[in-house]
Automatic annotation (TrEMBL):
<comment type="subunit">
    <text>Homodimer.</text>
</comment>
<keyword id="KW-0963">Cytoplasm</keyword>
<comment type="function">
    <text>Catalyzes the decarboxylation of four acetate groups of uroporphyrinogen-III to yield coproporphyrinogen-III.</text>
</comment>
<comment type="pathway">
    <text>Porphyrin-containing compound metabolism; protoporphyrin-IX biosynthesis; coproporphyrinogen-III from 5-aminolevulinate: step 4/4.</text>
</comment>
<keyword id="KW-0456">Lyase</keyword>
<feature type="site" description="Transition state stabilizer">
    <location>
        <position position="77"/>
    </location>
</feature>
<feature type="binding site">
    <location>
        <begin position="27"/>
        <end position="31"/>
    </location>
    <ligand>
        <name>substrate</name>
    </ligand>
</feature>
<feature type="domain" description="Uroporphyrinogen decarboxylase (URO-D)">
    <location>
        <begin position="141"/>
        <end position="157"/>
    </location>
</feature>
<dbReference type="InterPro" id="IPR006361">
    <property type="entry name" value="Uroporphyrinogen_deCO2ase_HemE"/>
</dbReference>
<comment type="similarity">
    <text>Belongs to the uroporphyrinogen decarboxylase family.</text>
</comment>
<feature type="binding site">
    <location>
        <position position="324"/>
    </location>
    <ligand>
        <name>substrate</name>
    </ligand>
</feature>
<protein>
    <recommendedName>
        <fullName>Uroporphyrinogen decarboxylase</fullName>
        <ecNumber>4.1.1.37</ecNumber>
    </recommendedName>
</protein>
<dbReference type="InterPro" id="IPR000257">
    <property type="entry name" value="Uroporphyrinogen_deCOase"/>
</dbReference>
<feature type="binding site">
    <location>
        <position position="208"/>
    </location>
    <ligand>
        <name>substrate</name>
    </ligand>
</feature>
<feature type="binding site">
    <location>
        <position position="153"/>
    </location>
    <ligand>
        <name>substrate</name>
    </ligand>
</feature>
<keyword id="KW-0627">Porphyrin biosynthesis</keyword>
<dbReference type="GO" id="GO:0004853">
    <property type="term" value="F:uroporphyrinogen decarboxylase activity"/>
</dbReference>
Amino acid sequence: MTTTPAKLMLRALSGEITERPPFWLMRQAGRYLPEYRATRAQAGNFLDLCYNPRLAEEVTLQPLRRYGMDAAILFADILLIPDALGQPLDYLEGEGPVLDPVRSAGELSKLNPENIHKTLEPVYETVSRLSSSIPSDCTLIGFAGAPWTVATYMVEGRGSKDYVNIKKWMYGDPAGFSALMDILVEATIAYLLKQVEAGAEVVQIFDTWAGVLPDDEFRKWVLGPTKRIVEGLRHHHPDLPVIGFPKGVGGNIIDFVEETGVTAVSLDTGTPLDWAARNVQTRVPVQGNLDPILLVQGGAAMENRIAEIINRLKSAPFIFNLGHGIIPQTPPEHVGALSQLIRDGSPS
Ligand SMILES: O=C(O)CCc1c2[nH]c(c1CC(=O)O)Cc1[nH]c(c(CC(=O)O)c1CCC(=O)O)Cc1[nH]c(c(CC(=O)O)c1CCC(=O)O)Cc1[nH]c(c(CCC(=O)O)c1CC(=O)O)C2
C-alpha cells in the first residue's frame, strides 16, 4: 500500500526542508484577475461576495486554476469580524472600508459579541466547500485579522496614516481599550475554530499594523492577544499550524515568535533575508517576502529577487510568498512567471 505524501505546505510548516519551497501569495484572489472582477460584478458588492459561499469558493479557486499554488486561502476579509459584531461597515469604491467608529469604552455596548456565527455562517460554508473542491495536494488556509489591526479600522473608522484615535484611547484609557481587545480576542478564537472545524488546515493571523506601536504597547496589544488566540486554538486543536504576520515590527519579530507560540511567521518585505535566516528561521519556518511591486514590474528584476530569496532561505524550512498582498495593478502573467520559476527553477 502506498501512502499519500503529505502536502508540501504542511511539510514545510512541520519543519521539513522541502525539495522546492511551497508557494502561495497573500491576496492571490482578487482584483488583478479579470475572472475575479467578473464574479465580483455578479455578486453585487464586496460583502455580498464574502457572504456568498458559491461565489467566494469560486474566487478562491480562480488563482489555483491558473497558477497551481500549494495553498488556497479562504476568500474573505479581516473586517468581517466587526461586521459580525454589529458595527456598520461599507466598502466604498476607490476608498476602501468605512465603519461607524467605536472610540470609547461607553460605545462598546454597540457591539454584540453573542451571535457572531449567525453572520459568519456563510464563511464556514465556503471553507467546507473548499475543503472538498481544492486539489488534493493543496492546503487550505483560513485567516483572521489580529485584534490590534482589526481594532485600528474599528476605532479610526477607515484605513489610517497616523492612528491618532486608537492610540489616544489606548494611552488614555488602557482598561477600557482592553475591553475592546478582549471582545476581539474571543471573537477571533471562535471564528478561527469554526473555520478549522469546517476544514481549514492552517490559519494565518494578519497583524498588518503591528509595526506602528512602541515596544511596551507592542507587547500588550500584539504579543498578548496573539498568544491568547494561539492558546485558545491549540486548546482544541493541539497540532494546528498557525502562521503569524506581524508586519513592520523589525527585530521584535524574535519576541513575537518566542512568546506567541506561532508555528511559522510571515516576513514583510523590509525584513533582511540574512538576518531572518540567522535569527528567525533558526526558531520557526518562515514565509515571504517578495516585494509585491516587483510582481507588478516583472522581468529580470522580479526573477533575480525571487532567486535571491530562495537561495538565502532554502537551507531551512521556508514557504515562498510576498511581503504583503498582491496589488490590483499586477499583470496576471507576472504571477505565471513567478509560479513557473518556483516550480521549475527557470522563468517561462
Ligand atoms: O486601505 C485600507 O486600509 C483598507 C484595505 C482593505 C482591507 N480589505 C479591503 C480593503 C480595500 C482595498 O484593498 O482596496 C477589501 C478587500 N479585501 C480583499 C479584497 C480582494 C482584493 O484585494 O482584490 C478587497 C478589495 C475588494 C474589492 O473591491 O473587490 C480580500 C482579502 N483581504 C485580506 C485577505 C487575506 C490575504 O491577504 O490573503 C483577502 C483574501 C485574499 C485571497 O483570498 O486571496 C486581508 C486584509 N484585508 C484588509 C487588510 C488590512 C491591510 C491592508 O490590506 O491594507 C488585510 C490584511 C493584509 O492584507 O495585510 C483590509
